[in-house]
Each structure stands twice: as C-alpha cells, then as structure tokens.
Design goal:
Layout (H helix, E strand, L loop, with lengths): L1 H21 L3 E2 L5 E8 L2 H13 L1 H4 L2 E8 L2 H10 L4 E4 L5 H4 L4 E9 L2 E5 L15 E4 L4 H12 L8 E4 L2 H9 L5 E5 L2 H6 L6 E5 L10 E6 L1 H6 L1 H20 L1 H11 L14 E2 L3 H9 L2 H16 L14 H6 L5
Parallel strand pairs: 2-3, 7-8, 7-9
Antiparallel strand pairs: 1-2, 4-11, 5-11, 5-12, 6-9, 6-10
C-alpha cells in the first residue's frame, strides 16, 4: 500500500511542476514574474536594460529578469523560437525575421544613425554613382548592406552594377585599411577604428540622409506564443522598456557611462555612443506609432529586404508589430 501512495504523491507533484517547466516565464511565491531577456552588448542593445536595472524598474513592475547576452539579432530570434528566451533585442538588419513571422516586435528602440558608405580620399570616387564596377566590402544582411542598397538605388544602380564582397565586420575594417577594397558599407564605432589608419576617408552617404522618410529602428521582440497567450506579462515588460527609454533619452551622457558599467566595459568604449543613435522619447514614439510613422519605418525596411532577397514580399507591419500593446502600456489607447 505504501508504494502506490508514494507513486501517487510523486505523480501529483510532477503534475504541478511540469506546467511551470514548460512555460517560458515563471512566477515566484511573491508573485514576481521571471522573464528571460536577450540583448546585445552595445549601447543601443543594452542602455535601456542598464537603466531598468539601475532604476529598479523590473521590481517596480513585478518582474525578475534573467538576462542573456547574444552577439546578434538572428541568434536571438532562433532562441525565441526554441523558447530559450522570452524577449530579445534586434538591430534593423534582423527585422526581416519578425517580418517573416519568426517573432513579434513589441517596441521600437533607438534609430540607428551609425551606418556609412565610405571610400578612400584618393580613389577618385566622389559620388555613389562612381562606385559602378568597384569592389565594395559589406557584411551581408546587415544595416550596412541596407544602406548600400538604398544608396545604389538612388544613384540608379543595383547590386549587379558593383562588385559586392561579403565580409564579416572585422574583415571590412582590415580590407578597407589595406586598400583591398574600393569602398565599404559599415558603421560606427568600426569606422572610428578604420580612421586610425585612414583618417581622411570620404563618407559618400549616411543613415540620417534618409530620415524621416526612412529610418533604421532597432527593436525589442518577443515570442509569438507569449504575445498571443500572456499579454499581461508583455505589458509589464513594455512598461519597463518605456520608462527605461525615457530615462536614457533624458540622461544620454550618464546612460553611456551606466551602460559601460552594466556591461563591465571601459567607460571610454561607450563615450559618444549616443551621437550615432537617435533616442526618441516614448511620448513621441506614441505619436509616431499612432500616426503610422513607426509602421512605415518597418514597411520601408521590409521593402529593402524584398530587394535584397530576404523576403518574398513586404508584409503589413500590423502582422508583426504589436502597436496596440505598445501604446496601451503607456495608457495611450
């Protein structure tokens, strides 16, 4: 008789444990919800999280974060799909993944203004049109690749009119410095590194040349299932992100130092990082979300991804950007 009772007790306990283990987030005895959050260790990817940590915003909204660092956005989308994380951060270059249904964008973050199309001062190239037939180093599928496509299109060219050489970012730095390529589509702070060897490089175009018609937002993303099944937790996280964003927008210099501390990196590594990003306060983001501008940012990116072959067609941003949840988290709707 004793053995069946033990088995029954074990089975009952297991039944209580399994639903929690299967869920992406969990609650503690005091009602605090644990959320697994991915990020990238740079200013745009970590500043809001650093502010949330410093200001106690997670506890304020009944949350406990489990933070995990990643090297890029696509890896986080993969982790969202497998349930290893609940939320994450992606740059504009990875936006094609939620646009293809792999995740939901729950909040726009900073607008990237770090990308440049550069050439050598002695190359004889003074305009984008002058790149025809030239060798251009670019990390494929990144925001650098996007700005190259935009620049070529405005100049009446396509990727077939130039020699695009796919390189990882560090190789672009080396190849450009050694004049192994005629031009590069790359971003700050890597351009600062290049300038140490090539101080007189020429910038043919830059991200802000396309603003506000087109912007390059980084974004916070969430698992599809979490958005569909637990809007309450998503809303709590959005409140943290919104308040953290506003603190960063109001304290940019301090935010640079705070981010360095958060990432255990030298403070000088992040000094001036906010100069190549546009930090938009949430009140303005609410306005831009309501009038459709944010959706147009994502639509513009998706159109580029179609040109790049990343998407077969440009979907309606409403299918992957949860604008209603973002605004509701601030009481905007």
């Amino acid at each position: 008789m004793r053995l069946p009772r033990r088995l029954a007790a074990f089975t009952a306990a297991l039944a209580l444990v399994l639903p929690v283990a299967a869920c992406g987030s969990s609650s503690s005895g005091d009602g605090t919800k644990t959320v697994k959050f991915g990020y990238i260790a740079d200013f745009a990817g970590a500043a809001v999280l650093a502010a949330a940590d410093k200001q106690g915003l997670w506890a304020k909204h009944g949350l406990e974060p489990e933070l995990k660092v990643f090297t890029n956005g696509p890896l986080q989308i993969q982790a969202l799909g497998s349930g290893d994380i609940d939320f994450g951060y992606i740059g504009s270059g990875a936006t094609w993944l939620p646009a293809s249904g792999k995740a939901k964008i729950v909040a726009p973050n900073m607008l990237g203004q770090a990308d440049r199309l550069i050439t050598h001062s002695d190359s004889g190239i003074t305009t984008v049109a002058g790149l025809k037939g030239k060798k251009i180093g670019v990390p494929e599928g990144t925001s650098g690749d996007m700005i190259l496509e935009l620049a070529l299109k405005e100049a009446g060219l396509t990727g077939k009119d130039v020699q695009k050489v796919n390189m990882d970012p560090s190789t672009v730095v080396t190849a450009f410095s050694a004049k192994q390529i005629d031009a590069a589509a790359i971003w700050y702070p890597l351009i600062d590194t290049i300038k140490k060897n090539v101080p007189d490089l020429v910038e043919l175009t830059k991200s802000e040349d396309y603003y506000p018609k087109l912007s390059f937002p980084s974004s916070f993303v969430a698992r599809n299932e979490l958005v569909a099944e637990d809007a309450a937790t998503v809303t709590k996280v959005l409140k943290v992100l919104r308040e953290g964003n506003d603190w960063v927008a109001a304290n940019t210099a301090e935010a640079e130092t705070l981010t360095a501390t958060f990432l255990k990196a030298p403070a000088e590594q992040f000094k001036g990082a906010s100069a190549v990003t546009k930090i938009v306060p949430t009140a303005e983001l609410d306005k831009l979300t309501k009038d459709g501008s944010v959706a147009n940012w994502y639509k513009g990116l998706a159109d580029i991804f179609v040109t790049m072959g990343k998407l077969p067609e440009s979907p309606d941003p409403a299918t992957y950007f949860t604008a209603d949840l973002y605004q509701a988290a601030g009481g905007a709707i």
